[in-house]
Amino acid sequence: MSDPAPATGTGPSEFAPWKDPDAQPLIQFRNVTKRFGDFTAIDDLTVDIYAREFFALLGPSGCGKTTLMRMLGGFETPTEGTILLDGQDIGPVPPNRRAVNMMFQSYALFPHLTVRENIAFGLKRDKLPKDRIDARVEEMLRLVQLQKFASRKPHQISGGQRQRVALARSLAKAPKLLLLDEPLGALDKKLRTETQFELMEIQEKTGTTFVIVTHDQEEAMTVASRIAVMDHGRMVQVDTPDRIYETPNTTYVADFIGDVNLIEGNAAAHHEDGKVEIHWREGEPPIVGTPMGEVPDGTRCTFAIRPEKVAISKDHPEGSSNIVHGKVLDIAYLGNMSTYHVELPTGVIIKAQLANNRRIARRNITWEDEVWLSWTETAGVVLTG
Amino acid sequence: MRRITWFNAVSLTLGFAFLYIPMLILIIFSFNSSKLVTVWAGFSTKWYGELIRNEAFLDAAWVTLKVAVLSSTAATVLGTMAAYVMVRGGRFFGRTLFSGMIYAPLVMPEVITGLSLLLLFISIGLDRGVLTIVLAHATFSMCYVSVVVSSRLVSFDRSVEEAALDLGCTPFEAFRLVTLPIILPAVISGWLLAFTLSLDDLVIASFTAGPSSTTLPIKIFSSVRLGVSPEINALSTIMIAIVTVGVIATSLLSKQAIARQQREEREAAQA
């Protein structure tokens, strides 16, 4: 099958150990199941995570992402299956003997200790000589830019600073693997965006493998080298952010990540280049899309297309093979872009997004306007799951 | 500002009068120069002088203090351990039964606690004295400590302990280095509660005290049966003074600490 998505461009030397069949994974989940009574939190899960990865576990609350992380930290043990860290089964290893550190959602700073003592806490447990500890703590304080606040207690610093203390404390022991449980959840949006880039920088600088749990898809897209989208204790898709976005493998993933138009229909008439026609409404022309897998004729399937890939115009467009006609029902103005909700004669609503690269007065589409929507044959994907 | 109505003023006065008039009378009569407790014959501090020379009272006070310090310390250790297991131990077989049993002495009539302890001490051949009172007091005040400490543990962010484990602590180190310092205020108030309970306990001490180990409440009670003497008034006044100073000091200190914490948090938020 041809690869519909362009390769990830992460720089001159692409970091993609998961594509290398010889690469040794740092963490291996092998058929791991975790049950709490009758509730199955993790359902027969198998996945490999590689060294130096920034791996994001993304999903709604209750999908099992936190349980997965707590099993890596040693706070939960798998009911079935094994977890290997560097080839070693870590099931029976208690949290204090693991080369894994965790940054907690609540930060879990020790309120009775200063920032410096908090960062030094883990190092002192290793019985390192005092000068080595001091040097390491200074290094960590510099890394998170908190030298000025070293002798303050946690309640004497701001939320953003606390977040950095928690990060420094969990990195101080130079763990093989750092777990981050919703690390930015308590920060406001602006600070969160800044901190995301800081996190990536620190991850690159220290070369530590990061596993982050988040329910914020934008955050996962920004920081992660790979994202695992989770639902009901299973990983629905594990892939790079761009592939998760452009080529979701199920409607669940397509719907969870970003905004999407989902159109249900029946597959028919395969083209020679692998594309497929979808009959979705009487009186509307069939949609031509690119299937993600085998779609036999007559299969019930869903056509998924992102709103920004739908072009909107007042005149009949030329050249596109998928063209529909409708009326503007609603406009959501988001500043940098606007989303147009267009109602087709059949009652279906399709969202189209347009970048506002002109000032608002110059734009010519408004409520109740008759418009044409169009997209290319490769713009959307055909999903059967 | 809400106005003070006559109804509020009256109920306030009545309530406080009900609480404090008896103590006020006691304090006033401790400064009475007459030997007759109910007849005022002018101001004098001579009963305080008498008190200092009264060896029996001083001995009893010393015994009481010893018992209170030892028993409240033992109760604090045991009560904290019990609270920790009950709150953190997760679900183990018989947990509900155990936690119920820890709190049962709170509602058990003291006479029964005292009697059962007396029977125990006699049957194991333990001579009654300071040791038996300490054991008895530790037994009944332990559950009070456990109530105070477990209420603190319930509101405690569990992930702080997990962070300690994560950073390389053994479970015991995590308790000693992280949990204990954080719950220390609750442990201290548990100790103070046990201390005051032991100080004024009469019933259980009467069952478990021997002839050579009379505590102050027993001493006061037995001398009052021979008639109230102004010396007793003086002694009681001293005890009231100690308690008052202690309560005011601790509340001022904790108020200051809270105010400082809030100020620092405000400053941190603005920075």
From TrEMBL, chain A:
Its EC number is 7.6.2.11. Residues 1-21 are annotated as: Disordered. GO terms for molecular function: ABC-type polyamine transporter activity; ATP binding; ATP hydrolysis activity. InterPro entries: AAA+_ATPase, ABC_SmlMolc_Importer, ABC_transporter-like_ATP-bd, ABC_transporter-like_CS, Mo/tungstate-bd_C_term_dom, P-loop_NTPase, PotA-like, Transp-assoc_OB_typ2. Residues 27-257 form the ABC transporter domain. It catalyses: ATP + H2O + polyamine-[polyamine-binding protein]Side 1 = ADP + phosphate + polyamineSide 2 + [polyamine-binding protein]Side 1. Part of the ABC transporter complex PotABCD involved in spermidine/putrescine import. Responsible for energy coupling to the transport system. Belongs to the ABC transporter superfamily. Spermidine/putrescine importer (TC 3.A.1.11.1) family. The complex is composed of two ATP-binding proteins (PotA), two transmembrane proteins (PotB and PotC) and a solute-binding protein (PotD). This is Spermidine/putrescine import ATP-binding protein PotA. It comes from Aliiruegeria haliotis. The gene is potA.
From TrEMBL, chain B:
The chain crosses the membrane at residues 12-31, 60-85, 97-124, 130-154, 174-194, 232-253. Residues 61-253 form the ABC transmembrane type-1 domain. InterPro entries: Bact_Polyamine_Transport, MetI-like, MetI-like_sf. Pfam families: BPD_transp_1. It is a multi-pass membrane protein. Keywords: Cell membrane, Membrane, Transmembrane, Transmembrane helix, Transport. GO terms for cellular component: plasma membrane. PROSITE patterns: ABC_TM1 (PS50928). It is found in: Cell membrane. One of its GO terms (biological process) is transmembrane transport. Belongs to the binding-protein-dependent transport system permease family. CysTW subfamily. This is Putrescine transport system permease protein. It comes from Aliiruegeria haliotis.
